[in-house]
Design a protein that fits this description.
Layout lengths: L4 H6 L3 H8 L4 E6 L5 H14 L8 E5 L2 H15 L7 E4 H11 L11 E2 L2 H14 L9 H13 L13 H20 L1 E2 L1 H14 L1 H10 L2 E4 L7 H11 L4 E6 L14 H4 L1 H4 L3 E6 L7 H11 L20 E6 L2 H17 L7 E5 L5 H10 L4 E3 L9 H14 L4 H7 L9 H14 L3 H10 L5 H18 L7 H11 L2 H6 L3 H20 L9 H13 L11 E5 H4 L4 E6 L16 H15 L2 E10 L2 E3 L2 E3 L5 H4 L6 E3 L12 H6 L13 E4 L3 E9 L6 E6 L3 E6 H4 L2 E2 L1
Parallel strand pairs: 1-7, 1-8, 2-3, 2-6, 4-5, 6-7, 9-14, 9-17, 10-12, 10-13, 11-12, 13-14
Antiparallel strand pairs: 15-16, 18-19, 18-22, 19-20, 20-21
Helix pairs in contact: 2-3, 3-4, 5-9, 6-7, 6-8, 7-9, 9-10, 9-11, 14-27, 15-16, 17-18, 17-21, 17-22, 19-20, 20-21, 22-24
């Protein structure tokens, strides 16, 4: 049944209804945590189609994960009572891939270009660095990979970057140049290249750009705060002067600056898109009032924000529990004990989560859960298509499709082992480099011209015969049987069956599950070959950072991984200065603000009960560290916090909680985050205090001279 406009609007609160029905050219929806942003986005699309008579094919809806894109499409279909398979709903990378497939000539790509996932890209970077004779100990390939991707996220080619005289930059630039040349030679592109290549496609082909500008009169973007420089440029170019843009996001949840996301994009939206209406969604449907008061108080200390104040009608709820542990082991035992109580009261384990700032914190937590026999899962751990045996099988499928796929060739040429050693592979690489041909062609030349030992030649020849035999059956076999061929004839299944224990059995079961995945795969284009569509979808899915579904288990994850999730019970562990906020962020205002947003995200994951823990001492790299309680705890109003005291586990006096929760530096007349002026150093912002009263030391980040530590009594600071 198509949606009934009146009944739909009755389901929305006033701010949501205003966002859904707004007729302004551009709309910025500031959607606080748990405020129903997906509902607003989906209903706005349905409203545009049903009420404003916008064609579904004139709408472009963009989000950040394939899971979110699928959910959005399903909800739109359900709301409208019809399927809109032709509507463009997808991730930035998925939509970019679709565009490049349609305009591969204009984009200067081969028709059957391959997408590199992160591992394959790293393999190619290593190949480039070996050819340049660079020491991987001095120049880690992962560092070079990150540098290349960060340049692409900024929209920069190697040709755009000028030599600076810095040896590091010069070496990275050389690697980037060679990497670009190799990718072009092989006809492959990485994830960052997808977006950059589309941006260049539109810039260099006005007719192509004009077509899509005319087609997409409505552009809607989810999680707008997570856009990077090239994505923002992409959207502004596509929107031009005619398209209407709806941006939905939350500047207070912009936590991926380390990945290239720019909170400045959402902060400057009103400036860059004229005639914008801004609507704030502040009613929260997830958390209790006490949890929201804590979140509001923490995020309020950030200066550069558009401003919201979350509220709820669901009642105050329980106070936030605060536990001061002796050390990280006491902290982990306490959390495990509370989880055991939670489970004993009939609650599901996967309704609880332990969040932490650093991955290194998980080891002690895992040990405590194991000792308590509480099943747990590291959220965001190795996904199905990232597992070794699956990547090997996929590379065989890629070789069956295109024997000149060098990345796949290198991965499986001797997997399972078939007597092709590193020396033989290096000889093949050398000939490939000197002749400018693929590894497959170089292998054929070396076998035909007898450049290899008889044993090596037989092994290489056997591998090539195997690939040719499997490739010859592509046209006559369904996708599932192609996958069955790949795992059986390659020897992968037999290799893992010979492994002892459950690990080998698990690998065999995973390979069998790959065949099931192929059976259930629904191609986008029923008239086109299925295998390349399947491989493209796998590569796109591999870009998502979502965990696999698993058994009922406590969820462990970093705070970055927690965004978008919610749990009735949440533990925030390690709430200490130098751990959270991280010591690398404390002296930089921009990074400190992102740490505060991360704390806001962590707090708002909790629905019913939030527990914060910190350790009086913590072992770091073999030494005991003594950190003060996190400023984020000190930011929280005391009336919503209750200190937990366990018999024989806490030796602090009762007044300890009040002393630790109160603002350090409160007797100085200044506050954290306050803007101040110094008669020599100029204007700055207070980052930290050490102590109270006039002898307190204060950390100030000055605009001109960086961070200085001053004695307050003699600094003569003036509040601005």
């Amino acid at each position: 049944m198509p949606m009934d406009v009146t009944s739909v609007l009755n389901q929305l609160n006033s701010a949501q209804e205003q966002a859904v029905t707004s007729d302004k050219k551009h709309l910025l929806v500031l959607a606080g945590a748990g405020s129903g942003k997906t509902r607003v986005l989906v209903h706005r699309i349905a409203w545009k189609i049903q009420v404003d008579n916008v064609s579904p094919y004139g709408i472009l809806a963009v989000t950040f994960t394939n899971k979110a894109a699928r959910e959005m499409r399903e909800r739109i279909d359900n709301l409208l009572g019809m399927s809109l398979r032709g509507m463009w709903v997808g991730t930035f990378h998925g939509l970019a891939h679709r565009l490049l497939k349609a305009h591969w000539r204009d984009a200067k790509l081969p028709e059957n270009f391959q997408i590199l996932d992160s591992d394959d890209q790293l393999r190619l970077v290593k190949r480039v660095m070996r050819a340049m004779d660079l020491d991987e100990q001095r120049w880690p390939p992962k560092q070079a990979q990150w540098w290349i991707n960060s340049q692409k996220d900024e929209g920069l080619r190697a040709a755009h970057i000028q030599e600076s005289g810095d040896p590091f930059m010069a070496t990275m630039l050389r690697i980037y140049r060679q990497y670009e040349q190799l990718c072009e030679q092989l006809g492959v592109i990485d994830f960052a290249e997808l977006l950059l290549r589309v941006l260049e496609l539109w810039r260099n082909n006005p007719d192509v750009l004009g077509h899509y500008q005319q087609r997409f009169g409505q552009i809607l973007v989810d999680e707008f705060q997570d856009t990077n420089a090239v994505q923002y440029a992409w959207l502004r170019l596509l929107a031009g002067t005619s398209s209407d843009v709806t941006a939905v996001g939350d500047d207070d949840q912009s936590i991926y600056g380390w990945r290239g996301a720019k909170v400045e994009n959402i902060l400057s939206f009103e400036r860059d898109f004229a005639d914008t209406e801004t609507i704030k969604l502040e009613q929260n449907y997830r958390s209790t009032s006490n949890i929201l008061k804590a979140a509001n108080a923490v995020i309020a200390k950030n200066a550069d924000r558009l401003g919201k104040n979350l509220w709820t009608e669901s009642g105050e709820g329980e106070p936030i529990a605060l536990y001061a542990a002796f050390n990280e082991h006491d902290e982990a035992r306490y959390i495990a004990d509370r989880l055991a109580d939670w489970i004993a009261n009939g609650n599901r384990r996967d309704d609880s989560a332990i969040l932490y700032r650093s991955n290194a914190q998980s080891r002690v937590l895992e040990a405590a859960l194991l000792q308590a026999e509480i099943p747990y899962r590291i959220y965001g751990g190795q996904r199905f298509y990232e597992r070794l045996e699956i990547k090997n099988a996929l590379c065989y499928l890629r070789m069956m499709l295109n024997c000149h796929d060098d990345v796949a060739f290198e991965r499986v040429v001797n997997t399972p082992p078939r007597g092709i050693g590193d020396r033989t592979v290096e000889q093949i690489r050398e000939l490939s480099r000197s002749n400018g041909c693929s590894l497959w062609e170089a292998s054929a030349t070396m076998v035909n011209e007898k450049r290899l030992t008889a044993r090596a030649a037989n092994a290489v020849s056997g591998f090539m015969v195997l690939i040719n035999e499997m490739s010859g059956q592509l046209d006559e076999l369904p996708l599932a049987e192609q996958a069955e061929n790949a795992i059986q004839h390659s020897g992968l299944v037999d290799m893992h069956r010979r492994e002892k224990g459950e690990r080998g059995q698990a690998r065999v079961e995973n390979l069998e599950e790959l065949v099931n995945a192929c059976k259930n795969f629904e191609p986008e284009d029923s008239d086109a070959p299925v295998l390349p569509q399947f491989l493209d979808q796998v590569a796109l899915d591999a870009g998502d950072r979502q965990a696999d579904e698993d058994q009922d288990a406590v969820q462990l994850m970093t705070l970055h991984s927690a965004k978008g999730l919610e749990f009735p019970l949440v533990f925030l562990a390690g709430m200490e200065e130098n751990l959270f906020p991280h010591k690398m962020s404390i002296d930089e205002p921009g990074r400190l603000e992102e740490e505060r947003r991360l704390a806001y995200v962590g707090i708002t994951r909790a629905m019913q009960k939030l527990t914060m823990t910190f350790a009086e001492t913590r072992s770091t790299y073999g030494t005991e560290s003594f950190n003060s309680v996190s400023r984020f705890i000190r930011d929280i109003p005391k009336e919503v916090v209750e200190e937990v005291r366990l018999h024989n586990t806490v030796t602090r006096p009762t007044t300890y909680a009040d002393a630790r929760i109160s603002d350090e530096g409160s007797e100085t007349g200044f506050q954290l985050g306050q803007q101040v002026r110094h008669n020599v150093y100029g204007d700055g912002i207070i980052l930290n205090f050490e102590g109270n009263g006039p002898r307190a030391r204060v950390h100030v980040a000055f605009d001109e001279v960086g961070t200085k530590i001053l004695i307050l009594a003699s600094a003569n600071l003036v509040a601005i």
